[in-house]
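Risk mitigation, structural track. In case the binding assays with pyridoxal-5'-phosphate fail to produce interpretable data, a predicted complex structure has been prepared as a fallback.
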Amino acid sequence: MPDFESLIKPALLAMPLFRPSAAAADVMKKYNLSSVTKLSMNENQYGPSPRAIEAMIGEAKSHAFQYPDRQGELLRAIAQKHGVTPQGLAISAGASGILNAIGDTFILPGDEVILSSMPYQQYPMVVARNDGKIVTIPVREDLRQDLDATLAAIGGKTKLIMLCNPGNPSSVAENTAELEAFIQKVPERVILMVDEAYLDFATDPERKKSMIPNIERHPNLIVVRTFSKLYGLAGLRIGYGVSSPELIACLSRGGALSSVNRLAMAAAIAALEDESYQRFIYDSITEDREMLAERFRGYGWAVYPSSTNFLYFKTGLDAGALLEALQARGILIRNFEFNRISVGTREQNRALLGALDEILHSGALNRAARSA
Ligand SMILES: Cc1ncc(COP(=O)(O)O)c(C=O)c1O
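Fallback model:
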């Protein structure tokens, strides 16, 4: 067997093996469960619009043998939604595809990339894979990006700033006016990526505005969006970037953008048209998010104000023990420093609260904390 690791790029060898969060099947086996509820990946548990499903079926039946050719139609639909030109858009296999393309296109070895100390997990990978140098800005106490410190960290070698708004895993969003003032101060030679994967779920009027309208005056700004969350198409892998046509043209060179399949395009076109379904998802998720946050606060937990479809919260108990106790009851969540839980369907959220009541009344977590 050749020593493949001796052939690998040094930057990749230094990176940990990718480990997906506990697979549902593993948990079912471990706890002898017949089903699990996955509140660990911030998916939209309601699934796609019925119109998107219908579009996929039609596309599969009639066109699956053909290469995708509805890109223009999809770009026009996205362009109309945001009031931009199709030339200012790139689509890819998920927002992840856009993040990878930004890194592969722009980061040269030694280039500095500014991240917060609580970045979305893919950002450091994108930088490391391209031999960039991560400059870390500690997050503020409220887990927002320290925008002043970010500006102060910009130097001659800075190529890119990767900012997540709202943040994952923090769930908190930046203040729109502060973020716009920040954008104005970033030099044009620095590419500023603002990842709005979750912004569709923001409700606070001071934090819910997209940065897309700023692109006109700031061609170095690229906003990243996805069909995985509000539109419930995570399994289809489709997302997009919005920027100046000049920046988008750079991304389109050399095959950096991963291609999007026909079913995903058909589903995305139909999902964009189905505004009443979008409203249903937004209303259901944001109402239940606030209901869950209230209940969690009632338990005495500190819940960060979420602008997303998940909650990030500090219980004061052992975070790992809570994750385990929920897993044993068939509910998957995810831990970072604290616990993160996706908002599910109404029924799933009720089941979650039932499980939490049971766990908290049993006192098992206090015992775990004491013995930790
Ligand atoms: C902040 C953030 N950006 C990007 C992505 C990637 O999204 P996609 O599913 O479109 O690849 C995610 C996925 O969860 C995310 O949380």
